[in-house]
Amino acid sequence: MVVDMGSILLVEDEAVIAESLLYALRSEGLVATWVRDGALASAALARGGIDLVVLDVGLPDVSGFELCRTWRRSSAVPILFLTARSAEIDRVVGLELGADDYVVKPFSPREVTARIRAILRRCAAPVSAESGRTPFRVDDDRLAITYRGQALALSRVQFRLLRALVQRPGRIFSRSQLIDEASGGDPSLDRTVDSHIKDLRAKLRAVDPAVDAILTRRGEGYALREDW
Ligand code: CA
Hints:
This protein is an alpha/beta fold. It has 8 helices and 10 strands. The protein has helices spanning 15-27, 38-47, 64-71, 88-96, 109-123, 156-167, 175-182, 189-207, and strands at residues 7-11, 31-35, 52-56, 79-83, 101-104, 136-139, 144-147, 150-151, 214-217, 221-224. α1 crosses α5 (109-123) and α7 (175-182) crosses α8 (189-207). It is elongated and about 55 Å long. Bound molecules: calcium ion (CA).
């Protein structure tokens, strides 16, 4: 078997779903490991070598959302949620937690595989927020971010915007993706996302006037600079 990218951890308690997904992933040359609950998933993640987690929300021992929240304190591993409910709240909650994408059951294994490939492409060779090369530190418990060791005074929306950018340096976020990441369901952000970015830039320049931390990709959106 030719392995061209990615070792996938599949966390799913329903054997029928897991087996059809495993078959689809492996037939596309992806390496996949299957565990049935959160405890086994955390153990597998701790052992390392995982490039992406496919995470069911409804697990027997812990919710996928809770698991994601815990992992995000120490890991930036890409996460694709499998959710049984299509309500918008699932999407918002999932993305606020730092997940990369989600699919709603029932889904086709082919759709999941395509999304996994898209995430892996997006994340290929990123400057990880944990690599030590980023000047940012995110503290999710205090909703605080430091830049070059200095605490930034951020509104809740600005915290979410900057956290989304910091977690994926170099990734281009469209305005609508940033709204998804940061709004918490507040539709008024649509008109204000650009002014929040402008305000964030001013706060970052106050710390380091020589560097543009947030780059504008004309016609596409915003990205955090990668070359620190
Ligand atoms: Ca389940």
